[in-house]
Structures are given as C-alpha cells and as structure tokens.
Amino acid sequence: MVATPVPPTRISNVPLWIRRTLAADPPRAKSLVVSLFGDAIAPHGGSIRLKSLIELLELFQVNERLVRTSVFRLVREDWLETMRNGRESSYRLTRTGFRRLEHAYEKVYQRPAASWDGAWTFILVPNDGIPAPRRSQLKQELGWEGVRQLTSHLFAHPTIQPEALIEILDRSGTRGKVISFTGATTDQLGMSVICELVNGTWNLKQVAGAYQSFMCNFGRLQLLLARSSGLSGWEWLAIRVLLIHSFRRIVLHDPLLPNALLPKPWVGDDAYRLAGEIYRICLPMSEQYLGERLGPATEAAVRILERRFCVERMAVTGHNKMNRE
Length: 325
What we know:
By secondary structure, the protein is of the alpha+beta class. The chain is built from 13 helices and 7 strands.
C-alpha cells in the first residue's frame, strides 16, 4: 500500500506564527534591542528601565544575560547611556543614538523618491593618507548607505544625501582625505554601462530574494490577522517588532536605487506596501500596550508615528478611542 502524503502543517493562529517566526530565524539580541528602541521606545521618550527591557525581551526568548550584554555593548558604542536611580538602572538613547536611528529608520518608513535626474555621487579614495583600519571602516559605512565600490578606489551611489556622506566621512575620520563628485551625469552610452554595473555590483537578486521571503512570511500573517481577534497587547507588539526587525534588516542591505535603475516590477515596492498595511493594523494596540508600561507617547511622537508608512492619525488614536467608549 502506498502511503498517503501528509500535507505540510499549516499555521493556524497568530501566536503560533509568532513562535514559529522566532524559532525559524531567532533575532540577535543586540539587533533586537536596536529595533525595539528605534521603533517602539524612541516615541515614548527614548528610555526604559532595565527591568522592563528584560521583561519585554524575555517574551522574544532573549534571556537576561543577553539583554545585559547587549545594552553594555550599545553603551560602549554610544547608542545608549546609563541612568541610575538608587539601585535601579535605566537606559536611554544618546544624541548620537537618536541621530543614527532617525537616519536609519527614514529608509524603513519611507520609500525613495520616484523621480531621479540621472546624477550620481562618486567618491574617490586615494591610496595614500588613509590608514587601513580607517579605510576599512569607510568602506563598511559606505556599504551600509548603499554606496558600492566600482573599482579599487572609486565608489558610487545615485541618491546619497550630502549630509549622510559628510557624517560617514566624519565617523570614519576620512573627511578631507577623499574626493567626492556630486551631480555627475553620463551620456546614454555611459548610462548603459552603469546599468550593467548596477546588476552586478549592487546584487539586486539577493535583495529581491530577501524581500520575497519577507512577503511570503508576512503575507501569511496578514491572512491570519484577517481571521483573528482578541490578540493580547504583547502579541500586537510582537508582530510590530518582528515586522520592523525583519524589514529593517532587508532595507539596510537594499541600496535603495531610483526606479530607473531597478527591475520592473520591483518586489521592494510590494514589500513596503505589505509592511505598511500590517503596521497600520498592529500600531493602535501595540501603542496602548507600550503606553501602559512606558508612559504615553507625546503629541510630537504621535505625529512621528502618523508619518510612518503614511499612517493616518486615526490609525494611532481612533482604535484607543473606541476601546475607551
């Protein structure tokens, strides 16, 4: 007798989806702390008691030792600073940490402008005058910004902002030691060469694959949410944090090139729309949950939340109003 194939187990509810997502790709503790601070804690003042942080991350299967190690390293790297009240410790974002997160999360919550004038920024890094460690840091920081190395000394990106480039040069200690050309354009023949470089140098296939995996997992979640009710506040927060954590990891490897240089259609646009739809759904109850533990978000913070994925104000306040009524 031929055995009947057993169909794959289907995820039947949201809590199970959360557990399976955590098990399939356990977030690194330090990276998860950054995601939590950047998306959820920053709008509530940017600080949290260590005890509360441990309790929140325990639900993501991150133990106390890993939390303490993570915040220690983030303090050393000038993301966080320690505050003490007697024997109790709290951690808050430094000015540098706020600035870094603000810059990074602009890429998460907003897509690049659709229009592009064809101009490029080229960065020439000379052989002499830059020690190897600084050169390595510069290359790494440029890579995080989507800038790619075209030749041994030449880097390029079509839309990097001057402020972002200056900050990278300052952090790597190479300001005044490299040459940048902003607004450079090429003729039609040169553009065809650049398009060939884009396909190889920017590794868009790998980025597209990551977006497709994101859409597969979170598309499944979207279907579950349409059939689910009665989720706890923590479950809504878990969805929000896992969503942003997963999406942020992809976006920070996405060079965010203009539409003119991307394949048509581009899966990154679909992933952004999906992320925004799920974020709108989980934002009200996750904010209520955070407000009960960290204090309510300020009016200024609410306005920031409104702009994320083009979220309307009603998405933040309307649900809570209905609950009170």
